[in-house]
Structure formats: C-alpha cells, structure tokens
Amino acid sequence: MRLDLVPRGQRSPWAEALSPTLAFLAAVLIGGDAVSAMGVSPGAAFAAYFIAPLSEAWSLQEVAIKAAPLALIATGLAFCYRANLWNIGAEGQFVVGGLAGGMVAIATHGSTGTTVWILPTMLVTGTLAGLAYAMIPAILRVKLGVSEILTSLMLVYVAELLLDYMARGPLRDPAGFNFPQSVSFDPAARLPYLWEGDTLHAGVLLALVATVLAVVVLGRSLFGFEMRVVGASPRAARFAGFSEERLTLLAFAISGGAAGLAGIVEVAGRIGQLQPTISPGYGFTAIIVAFLGRLSPVGILVAAFVIAVTTIGGEAAQIDLRLPLDLTRAFQGLLLGLVLGADVLTRFKVRLVPGAAR
Hints:
- By secondary structure, the chain is mainly alpha-helical.
- Helices cover 69% and strands 3% of the residues.
- The chain has a domain at 68-295.
- Helix 4 (90-107) packs across helix 11 (282-292).
- This is ABC transporter permease.
C-alpha cells in the first residue's frame, strides 16, 4: 500500500483561507501538551506567549521593531522563492548591509555642518552591499551552474566572521575600554523615533513601504508575471522568451538588497553601533516568515507580526516561567510544518493505492 497525492480539480477558497488558522491552533495545542509535560500550566504559557506581548504599549513597540526586519527580509526572499530560486543566505546579506552602512556612520562620526545626508547614505550603502553580496551566488549559478543553496549559505559564515573581525579590530572604539564595539553613532546617523520618548523608529515604516511596493511589483507588473511563470514552469517560460538568467540576477538583487536594508535598519535603529553580532538570526527566521505568509507580501507582514509576538513572548516565558528559549524556536518550526502540511491538503487529495505484491 502507498499514499499518493492527487491534485484537486477545484480548490475551496474557504479551505485555503482557514488552513493557516487551523494550523496555528494545532501548533498551540501541541505546544500546550509540551509545556504541560514540563510542569507548566498551558494557560500561563499561552498568556506569556500571546497575551502579554500585546497587552502594553512598550511590548507592542518591541513586537513592531522585531517584525520590521523580518518582514523586509522575507519580502525580498519571496521574489526568489516565487521563481524557484533558493536564497538561504539572507543572514549574511543582512550582516554585510549592517556592516557597510555602519562604516559610513563611523567614517562621519563627529562631523559638523550639514549632516542630513548621512542617514540616507547609510541606507543606500547597506542596501547596495546586501545586493552585491547576493550577486555572488546568483552569478555562480548563472555562469557556472553552482547550487545557490550551498554558496549563499556558506557566505553567511564569511559575513559573520568579517563583522566579528572588523568590530574587534579596525572599527573598534579606541576609547571604548577594549570592548569589541565601534563608537556609538551620532544622532544624525540614527533612525528617528516616531514618537518622542518611545522606542519605535522609522524602520517600521520602511517595512510597510516595502510591502506596498512588493504588492504592486508582484501583482501588477510584467516582472511579477514573469517570475510566476518561471517558477511554475521553466520550460514554458523559455518558450515565452523569458530569460531565466536575467530573472535569477534580478530576484537575487531584490532579495539581497532587502536583506541589506534590514541590516542597516537594525544597526541604525535599535543597536546604534557595530558589534561582533548584530542579528539574532533574522535571516534564517525570515525563511519561516516567507513561507508562513505563503510568499504573499501582505501574508508575510502578518506572519512577521506573529513570529515577533512569539519571540517577545518566548523571552517573557523564559524569565517568568523558566521555559527554555529553544521551545520558542521549536514552536515556530512546528508552525511552519503544519502550515505547509495544511497547504498540501487543501491542494491535493490523499489517495491510498494498493501496492504491487513483493
């Protein structure tokens, strides 16, 4: 006996709309059983993970600040994944973007006179640095046929080691008591806060703008149509005259640029200086966000918010309930698996086929 997946002739719009919600509820139930096995009340864990982050103004701001880089990176990744290209190295592009943009802030530290150009230059530099770094696996795939999965992933470690070296060496603050960090950025090199006295900065607005642009490009442009055709049927795309090489370069450029922008947003926003580590794993978590959002810009924005809520809630649960932080990561992975499984069941029928006797 074997199980076969048979495409459904007609997909139910209600099933497709409800499947992520049902997958989320299933993940909560499974997570509740795991928490209960650890001797913690599932109700208390649910409140810590999902209610507490939404109950106060400061925690809502933290959720938005966490969600912004995730949404930026995942929106860029959606361009690659829709075209059946696998950029796994957004973490490295994020780091390179933060490093390059941060170097502009360090080079202009203490500048006098007109400084309004510094922050825009940092944002552009970070975006271009992430774009250039993403071009390495893209060009290797196009010209030499090298797997972009391996090259983009291995380049993550190169970027992280480069940032570590620069923060501990050439860019270290000489007056910083030998701590491995750069000088603190001047106010002109920091993203402005949306409200005085709060922590919410303008990087959140950049994530919203990126979502709107992605909706227009993917849904209303020839490039978005070309991407869908190449991803669904490369052979049909070749017959239509679409260039797979050109699409690969453009998709990686958009993906890397978005990750680089997210990197400098994080550095110029929350951190305010260069350190040996500037990312808690945003580039890898954004892969989960992209697929939770079904590669849709609006869905990605919602998924980024959900993942940010669970991340902030996981930190609270670690402090208040003594639950391990790895439980949060396990829950996020479980949620991704259940959402993908639900998508499969809405698009295919499971058929039991008698196997040949052996």
